[in-house]
RNA sequence: GCGACUAUAGUUUAGUGGUAAAACUCAGGUUUGUGGAUCCUGUGUCGAGAGUUCGAUUCUCUCUAGUCGCCCCA
């Protein structure tokens, strides 16, 4: 018989226990940090009506058709597996726009799906921390959201030198282009698209292409762009004031062609082997326009688990392997297995994670396996222990033993 | 959508136009109630199909899968 492949579907991942341990560490750090800033968690289904992704024009329609998982359900509704969280949360905010006490701080860790060509750091399914402040037009909201992203990396154990925050502002850029007499959206889009490649291509090539778009203003745009790392704005000054200094203005920063209307930012890994954007976000006006005439603004960011994992791996910040149980109960013979479960139930009852080794290995192998698993203690159950009602708890790290009734031992281990 | 590279044991890799290796992992034994050791044992249609050849895992072609880039990146 021909068997099915054991590989997961293209572009998605299996989480074996050791992978899941890392995943939990990432999720825990994400939510702990967001909640330390007073953010509240929300979530929604992975299924959304396709139109909430399409309704931003032909460009979006094309994106949805080519880069999402979209299908028609049995009721002839067009459905999409959510590729991003922002339209969903915009829908939810709009639904309650009259009863929410703005500003609100919300976060979520959604599973997102994109039909893409896979490559390093890009898969078809990932998890993303999404943090947003809705309903505040104060620049301090922009500063706080960047500070939250910064603190998240710090809480993973990162040093500020390991990454760099690049900030730009859509409105400032628009004003700058207008000061040069450029107001044509199409031209600005072309310039922005080229700017996005600024760090990837040669300076002379950049200038040559820029001259093709806008011959008269090319030199001024290049100069403006090159001096940006020397300059500052309200956001960078605010970040410096709260002790965040690995930040600079980068006027080449583009962030695609999404809904951002003000501040935009990205965090870059400074390690050359992982030199890529780790997270990004920005400010948008009237996020809720699709759903209601109540205009609600927002500022937020998204940070993926895949890029986070790459970052932690690159900088040696992945956590050490964690044990599945603190105590492993070992039986000398199979006939004691129920006695073993009784012992385990006692320990679990006082909050000690306990498992019973029900394998058929020999005693020595079981001890070795327990040690290998990272458990803290073993407790052997056999003829003597059951008849006497006294047990020996052995600490695997230092070899010390503690003996007594189950009650005594449970007391000693209780958390 | 375009391009490059790769495919050998569970994993990571060596290797050869003439019957395929190592390390690690795992399982069992060495060891009848106590430690990551030692030693022994175990597992492969060399990605699939076709061609060249006396003979192909090795060379050629096609396909498939994966990786990495470009494009795009909400």
From TrEMBL:
Keyword ATP-binding appears in the UniProt entry: yes
Cited Pfam families: HGTP_anticodon, tRNA-synt_His
Superkingdom field: Bacteria
Protein name: Histidine--tRNA ligase
Domain Aminoacyl-transfer RNA synthetases class-II family profile: 11-319
Catalysed transformations (reactions): tRNA(His) + L-histidine + ATP = L-histidyl-tRNA(His) + AMP + diphosphate + H(+)
GO biological process, one term: histidyl-tRNA aminoacylation
């Amino acid at each position: 018989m021909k068997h099915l492949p054991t590989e997961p579907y293209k572009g998605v991942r299996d989480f074996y226990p050791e992978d899941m341990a890392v995943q939990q560490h990432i999720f825990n750090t994400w939510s702990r940090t967001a909640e330390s800033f007073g953010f509240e968690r929300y979530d929604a289904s992975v299924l959304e009506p396709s139109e909430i992704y399409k309704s931003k024009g032909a460009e979006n329609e094309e994106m949805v058709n080519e880069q999402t998982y979209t299908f028609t359900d049995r009721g002839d509704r067009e459905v999409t597996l959510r590729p991003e969280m922002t339209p969903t949360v915009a829908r939810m905010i709009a639904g309650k726009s009259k009863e929410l006490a703005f500003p609100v701080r919300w976060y979520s860790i959604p599973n997102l799906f994109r039909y893409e060509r896979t490559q390093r750091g890009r898969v078809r399914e990932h998890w993303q921390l999404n943090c947003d402040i809705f309903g505040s037009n104060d620049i301090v909201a922009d500063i706080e959201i960047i500070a939250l992203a910064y603190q998240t990396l710090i809480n993973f154990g990162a040093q500020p030198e390991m990454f760099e925050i690049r900030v730009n502002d859509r409105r400032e850029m628009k004003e700058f282009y207008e000061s040069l007499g450029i107001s044509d959206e199409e031209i600005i889009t072309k310039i922005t698209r080229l700017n996005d490649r600024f760090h990837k291509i040669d300076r002379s090539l950049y200038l040559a292409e820029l001259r093709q778009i806008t011959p008269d203003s090319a030199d001024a745009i290049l100069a403006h762009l090159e001096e940006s790392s020397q300059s500052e704005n309200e956001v960078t000054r605010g970040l410096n004031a709260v002790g965040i200094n690995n930040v600079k203005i980068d006027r080449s920063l583009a962030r695609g062609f999404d809904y951002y209307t003000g501040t935009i930012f990205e965090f870059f890994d400074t390690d050359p082997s992982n030199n890529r954007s780790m997270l990004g976000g920005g400010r948008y006006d009237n996020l809720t326009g699709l759903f209601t005439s109540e205009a609600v603004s927002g500022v937020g960011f998204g940070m993926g688990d895949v890029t986070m994992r790459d970052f932690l791996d690159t900088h040696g910040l992945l956590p050490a392997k964690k044990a599945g149980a603190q105590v492993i109960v070992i039986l000398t013979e199979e006939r004691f297995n129920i006695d073993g479960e009784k012992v385990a139930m006692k320990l679990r009852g006082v909050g000690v994670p306990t498992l019973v080794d029900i394998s058929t290995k020999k005693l020595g192998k079981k001890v070795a396996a327990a040690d290998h698993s990272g458990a803290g203690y073993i407790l052997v159950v056999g003829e003597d222990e059951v008849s006497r009602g006294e047990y020996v708890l052995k600490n695997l790290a230092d070899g010390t033993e503690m003996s007594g009734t189950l009650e005594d031992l449970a007391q000693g281990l209780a958390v």
